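FORM 7B - TANDEM STRUCTURE REPORT

SECTION 1: FIRST PROTEIN
SEQUENCE AND TOKENS:
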Amino acid sequence: MSNDFSVFDLDKNKLDSEWLEQSALYYEHALKLADARADYDEAKAAREVVAAETDRKIRKSPEIYGLEKVTESGVANAILLQKEHKAAVQKEIDKRRAVGIVQAMVDALDHRKKALENLVVLDSRNYWSRPQTPKDDNTRDRLEAKERQSAFGGGRKRTS
């Protein structure tokens, strides 16, 4: 499982490339999630088989497992103490964690999609543009005259 977070370093100047990459990334990690879920289901089933086999062994020879008489709670507790069962439980836990990690990446890719959407909106509104002076000289002259006028008393006549 890689911790490559470079997929989240979005280049606002290459939004088209980022968008083209998004669906492939999502698909790749959605497949990984499906595989991780299948692995988890297999580990869970294997743990259940170990529990069932151990249950049968305990009921057949309870004295080997330290039980004087066979009770449901006694058998259940004896199963939990068996090395094979503990290993199967740990494998199930590890597979569930792997599902969580891949699910987190898929969720993060959903957030990446939203970030891309917002960057496109900002770009369409010229968020990163620089202010420019008007190209029309006449307009520029009017703006400069207005600035001079406000700098020197606002153009109002005084009455004494």
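SECTION 2: SECOND PROTEIN
SEQUENCE AND TOKENS:
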Amino acid sequence: MAKQLQSQEWYEHLVEECKAIITEAVFTSRWALVEGYWTLGKRIRTDLSFTKFAKANLTSLQDLANNLSLSQRTLYYSLQAYDKFPKLDLIPEGKNISWNKLITIYLPESLANEKELDILELENHCPKCGYEW
């Protein structure tokens, strides 16, 4: 019975369409994660109140990560992704990229020492426009 079903043209067409749906869903979900974390990094980096408050204060980023139920590392990578690619369309490979690939290949500035979360960028100036406070 299964062999007869697989030889039917309509069945082959169904299988091909289902594979296309699954492939598109995988691409969409991967891109949604990349876009979401990038947007998170943008939101934090462009919030002048948080940046001013976080000045020389490592625990503010740790607290934010905890309040968002995110790891400190994920929050750090979100900021790094926005810093390195200030526009979404600058992210390499477009929608073919995954979050894991982005952080392991294109964000090589790994968090070598988790105690140092690159607070220099939050310390006294905006990394994008150079505004100092």
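SECTION 3: OBSERVATIONS ON SECOND PROTEIN
Residues 7-45+59-116 form one domain.
Helices lie at 2-6, 9-45, 48-53, 58-67, 72-84, 99-106, 120-123.

SECTION 4: SIGNATURE
Preparer initials: ____
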